[in-house]
Amino acid sequence: MHLTPYYAPADNHAGGGNQAPSFCPNCGHPVSPNDTFCQNCGYNLMAGNQGPAQSATPSRRQQQQQQQPATPQPPRRPRQPWTKKQKLQWGGIGLAVLIVLLLGVWGGHHYSRTATLDRAVKSIKTGKKMTPNFSSRSSALKLTNAKLLPLNHYYRKHSKALSTLKDQLLTRGSSHDGTLTYRQTGRHFLFDEFTIEVQQVRK
Asked: What is the pLDDT of residues 52-100, one digit of tens each?
């Protein structure tokens, strides 16, 4: 499509008319005030008229942003290095937490049901320190190492029977004749305490 360029007179007046004609800002072709598009190039005359007015008038949001003063930001304080006292305090706290964790792991294993039974069976086999691993519900039966020695005498001669007893206490919780029962009888600090409960002592 070929567009014919037109040029407006320098004084923006027609040859003998009194009314000043309008011209297309894109190609210079004369246009009527009622025209919406240029008949020569198709330029949107309404957009050309509204553009400068819209850009010249700031929006209400822009006016509010310009009127609001900028909030001053407080200066950022530099981080102070730790003092020797603070280092010692936090070091002590970390060491205490580590010790508590290690004690918890050790105690959980040492006072576990299996580990406690291992120590009890070992005491039966050796005949030493048997009392802490045994208990009785009967107030008339006072357990002493001397009263528990018959267990040592019997199972020292029958090692296979001692191994069977250990399996029975660990799996069933009692011996086959019901004279010995392995169960929780209390607590040792934060951990469960297990003992072999005696109903009657072998002679």
From this structure: 444 445 566 666 666 666 677 777 878 888 898 999 999 999 999 999 9
- Spatial CA neighbour of 201 closest among 175, 173, 169, 166: 175
Contacts 24+ apart (CB under 8 A), 3-11: 3/27, 3/40, 3/41, 4/29, 4/40, 6/30, 6/40
Sign of CA dihedral 158, 162, 168, 171: negative
Antiparallel, parallel or unpaired: β 134-135 and 180-188: unpaired
Are the CB atoms for 50 and 57 separated by under 8 Å? no
Asked if residues 59 and 51 have their Cβ atoms less than 8 Å apart, the reply is no
Q: What share of the chain is helix, strand, coil (3-state, %, to 5)?
A: 45, 15, 45
Is the pTM here over 0.85, yes or no? no
